[in-house]
Amino acid sequence: MAWHPPPVGREMERVSRQPGGRAQGPAPTEGEIARAANRTRFTCHSPRNSAQRTATSPRAGSSPAAIPRPPLIFQRFPVTNREYIVFLDDLVATGREAEALLHVPQERPGQVGEQGAIAYGRKDDGTFQLVVDADGDAWLPDWPVCMVDWRGARTYAAWLAAKTGHSWRLPFELEWEKAARGVDGRFFPWGDFLDPSYCCMADSHEGHPLAQVIDSFPIDESVYGVRGMGGNMREWCADRFQTEGPPVLDHGLPAPVEPAPSGDVADRVLRAIRGGAWVMGAQSERCASRARTGPGIRAVFLGFRLARAPAGTLG
After folding, report:
1. Which among 8, 52, 159, 209 has the fewest CB atoms less than 10 Å away?
2. Which residues pair with 292 in a beta bridge?
3. What is the reported pLDDT for 185?
4. Nearest to 225 by CA among 26, 24, 23
5. CATH hierarchy code of domain 36-309
6. How far, in Å, CA of 167 to CA of 144, rounded?
7. Neighbours of 48 (CB within 10 A)
8. What is the widest separation between alpha-carbon atoms in the chain?
């Protein structure tokens, strides 16, 4: 697994903003899911006197805003290769092999419009398995899955929701940010100081850099017990990216995701991504760092995790 610059026309853009706040948080909750927001407000930045509050504005004259957030449950860890293979194998077993081949992790193609080679191997029965990749690296089951585009992440979420009866989905940007930085506006999930040993980032590796298994960096944990939001793998969000920040309705819920367009138009609607990654530096590890890319992009540093509303609530 190695990072290569994208082909022309397939760039991933990063938009940074200044963080705010201080403090170390209390001990995280336990379990595979974390309740990443009581009905409380958290501090982010929005334009002064804006009629529609937003998460951030890169323009001069922005000020902190307290945005109310409804309760939400996050997966404690990002989706792993192990979990994603279960999803793909189930598609094959239920007669949806074409969908499995569409959503399987794929290498970056050499030219825009081409389809890259699949990153997983296949067994004789058609199911998927981990293999050594084109760079000679053996992928591990408990690495975060990567090389999955926005549509693949959404399809996995719909599959898991149908399997479990819970409304799993991609989180919105504001939901992701609160799960990462809590209500005190900390710079990083664990507090305000960064050391390369705290999360999986570019400076964490002495030799050949690689992604790491999901529980390798225990300090990379938010106040809510959500792991790996500072480094290892960037994550897809549900939102269409907006430079001025994601819009928020008056009652604190994120604005609904518009129906995903189809055809060539779909690839021009940039989607928000959040979090740091194993190939990135300190600027990208901040909870407030924002980035954007097309929904069809696949990258070795881009995966996803899911969130859902608690039972009996909307969201």
Report:
1. 8
2. 13, 272
3. 84
4. 26
5. 3.90.1580.10
6. 21
7. 10
8. 62
Given a contact cutoff of 8 angstroms between Cβ atoms, the answer to whether 86 and 310 are in contact is: no
* CB-based contact 269:151 (threshold 8 Å): no
Q: Give the helix/strand (H/E) hosting 63.
A: strand 62-69
Give yes or no for a contact between 229 and 189, defined as CB atoms under 8 angstroms apart.
Answer: yes
For strand 234-240 and strand 302-303, is the pairing parallel, antiparallel, or unpaired?
Answer: parallel
State the Cα–Cα distance between residues 248 and 241, nearest whole angstrom.
13
- Domain definitions of the chain by residue range: 36-309
Torsions phi, psi for 144 (to 5 deg): -60, 140
Amino acid at 207: G
Element (H, E) at 42: strand 40-47
pLDDT at 9 (0 to 100): 37
Show the low-confidence residues of the chain (pLDDT under 50): 3-31, 36-43, 45-64
Dihedral angle of Cα 260, 118, 291, 36, to the nearest 10 degrees: 80
The whole-angstrom separation of Cα 259 and Cα 295 is 13
Please say whether the beta carbons of 142 and 214 come within 8 A. yes
Letter for the amino acid at 113? Answer: G
Contact 71, 40 (CB under 8 A): no
- Confirm if 294 and 6 have CB atoms less than 8 A apart: no
The phi-psi region of residue 6 (left if phi > 0; otherwise alpha if psi is between -120 and 50; otherwise beta) is: beta
C-alpha span between 85 and 108 (Å, rounded): 19
- Kindly give the pairing relationship between strand 62-69 and strand 13-15: unpaired
What b/e sequence results for 239-257 when a residue is b if at least 16 CB atoms lie within 10 Å of its CB, and e otherwise?
A: bbbbebbbbbeeeebbbee
Beta bridge partners of 40: 69
CA atoms within 13 A on the CB side of 114: 12
pLDDT tens-digit readout, 216-274: 999 999 999 999 999 999 999 998 998 888 776 666 555 655 555 555 556 678 999 99
